[in-house]
């Protein structure tokens, strides 16, 4: 696919003119050299990286910026970087006189630069160091503020530069994470279609179909990804960037993020709260897709109930505070604002049962997802071993409370609640 042609936008049958304001995407050998031309009018540049990502691409980046005035924020590579208030301040404090931010990294560095860029009105470029996630071209910045995982509206980079030699040298778990993140789109797309049916949410068939094409393209890459084959890594990165552009087209992360991402956010947030280990984002998303596929199979195997489940307000708040501790107030306030707990969709479920069942049945089975993941040596046993049955079951019930988006997690809770 010609990504730079896609960037020019699409007049869509859905009635929207889909646009994306990124100027350049280069996924190629020596892509970082493009900085010489792209940054010709920028003289004061702030580089943001951690020690590991700077080791991967910092030298190449500085060489391409020879003659510029450069300041740096280099975070430690020894611990997981959290995109929180402290990290935001560390970058913001170095911004004075800078006319461009260049992030060197992937997920967290990307979100951090995107957030600071947007709220300080300074453009940024991302030099990608791993094909690990789809957020390079999306408008959302996934931050952790007030202890909550919040996706803030943010701007897009001027350019995405992905040197395939750097990408293929990334840690193998980050490469697997990119593959896993793509597999998660089966679940995200199904949730989008489900919410369109139940809630009348905006839906675009063009975005849906093009996202699905990226999944199909990626499924054939597993062997090449494991071997760090440069063409396979390039194709994976292209798929991730295209999906990011499609999120920009949709105006939200809906085509690429649903129940599987909510579960991943649950494990990350509770891991931070309790100081316990959690898996890399894309790998968590991949394994969580198995879980959401299982939920859909359960919903299809049973009769739709004539009454939805709801706990008392007291019982609900007690459980949320047990799980989310100091961040519980944020979850409760979000759900009070969204209003799903006060909504009774029983009539819609019964009226549209046939259509809902048809949508749920479009999702591959849990066993099929496991097989797709095994091709990239992602074993669901690692997920069960790390989190355990009780934590996973809690996530399936309460990960939904972290977000304002309707997914199969809500339908499962509506139907079965704490009986799940």
Task: Note down, in words, how this protein is organized.
The structure is a single chain. The chain is built from 20 helices and 10 strands. With 420 residues, it is α/β, with parallel strands linked by helices. It has a 6-stranded parallel beta sheet. Helix 14 crosses helix 15. The radius of gyration is 21 Å and the shape is globular. It has 2 domains: 168 residues, Rossmann fold (3-Layer(aba) Sandwich), CATH 3.40.50; 175 residues, no CATH class.
Q: What's the structural domain tally?
A: 2
Q: Taking Cα atoms only, what radius of gyration do you get, to the nearest Å? A: 21 Å
Gross morphology is: globular
Mean pLDDT: 94
What is the spatial order of strands in the main beta sheet?
3-10-7-6-4-5
Tally of helical segments: 20
Secondary structure tally: strands = 10
* Alpha-carbon distance between the two ends: 43 Å
| H and E order | HEEEHEHEHEHEEEEHHHHHHHHHHHHHHH
* Low-confidence region ranges: none
Q: Tell me what portion of residues adopts beta-strand conformation.
A: 5-15%
Biggest beta-sheet profile: 6 strands, parallel
Explain the layout of strands and helices.
Elements: H1 3-6, E1 10-11, E2 17-18, E3 24-28, H2 35-38, E4 44-50, H3 51-64, E5 69-75, H4 85-92, E6 100-105, H5 107-120, E7 124-128, E8 140-145, E9 148-153, E10 159-163, H6 164-168, H7 172-183, H8 185-199, H9 205-219, H10 222-226, H11 230-250, H12 259-274, H13 281-301, H14 313-324, H15 328-338, H16 346-351, H17 353-361, H18 366-374, H19 380-398, H20 408-416
Parallel strand pairs: 3-10, 4-5, 4-6, 6-7, 7-10
Antiparallel strand pairs: 1-2, 8-9
Helix pairs in contact: 4-5, 7-11, 7-13, 8-17, 9-11, 12-13, 13-18, 13-20, 14-15
């Amino acid at each position: 696919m010609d990504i730079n042609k896609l960037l020019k936008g699409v007049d869509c049958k859905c009635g929207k003119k889909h646009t994306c304001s990124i100027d350049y995407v280069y996924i190629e050998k020596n892509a970082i050299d493009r900085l010489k031309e792209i940054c010709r009018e920028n003289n004061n540049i702030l580089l943001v990286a951690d020690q590991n990502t700077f080791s991967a691409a910092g030298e190449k980046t500085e060489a391409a910026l020879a003659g510029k005035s450069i300041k740096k924020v280099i975070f430690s590579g020894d611990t997981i970087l959290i995109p929180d208030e402290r990290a935001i301040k560390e970058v913001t404090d170095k911004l004075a006189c800078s006319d461009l931010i260049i992030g060197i990294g992937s997920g967290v560095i990307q979100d951090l630069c995107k957030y600071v860029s947007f709220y300080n009105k300074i453009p940024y470029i991302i030099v990608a160091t791993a094909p690990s996630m789809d957020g390079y071209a999306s408008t959302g910045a996934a931050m952790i503020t007030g202890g909550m995982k919040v996706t803030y509206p943010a701007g897009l980079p001027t350019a995405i530069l992905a040197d395939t030699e750097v990408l293929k040298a990334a840690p193998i778990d980050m490469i697997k994470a990119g593959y896993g993140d793509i597999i998660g789109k089966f679940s995200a797309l199904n949730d989008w279609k489900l919410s369109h049916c139940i809630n009348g949410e905006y839906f675009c068939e063009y975005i849906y179909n093009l996202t699905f094409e990226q999944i199909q393209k990626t499924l054939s890459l597993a062997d090449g990804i494991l071997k760090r084959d440069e063409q396979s890594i390039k194709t994976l990165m292209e798929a991730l960037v295209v999906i990011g552009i499609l999120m920009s087209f949709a105006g939200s992360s809906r085509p690429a993020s649903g129940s599987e991402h909510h579960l991943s956010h649950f494990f990350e947030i509770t891991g931070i709260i309790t100081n316990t280990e959690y898996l890399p984002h894309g790998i968590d998303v991949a394994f969580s897709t198995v879980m959401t596929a299982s939920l859909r199979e359960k919903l299809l195997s049973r009769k739709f109930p004539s009454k939805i489940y709801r706990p008392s307000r007291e019982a609900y708040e007690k459980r949320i505070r047990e799980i989310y501790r100091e961040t519980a107030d944020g979850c409760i306030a979000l759900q009070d604002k969204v209003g799903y707990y006060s909504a009774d969709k029983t009539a819609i479920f019964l009226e549209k049962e046939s259509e809902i069942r048809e949508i749920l049945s479009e999702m591959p089975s849990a066993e099929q997802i496991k097989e797709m993941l095994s091709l990239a040596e992602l074993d669901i046993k690692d997920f069960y071993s790390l989190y355990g049955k009780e934590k996973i079951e809690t996530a399936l019930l309460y990960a939904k409370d972290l977000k304002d988006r309707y997914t199969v997690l809500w339908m499962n809770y509506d139907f079965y609640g704490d009986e799940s």
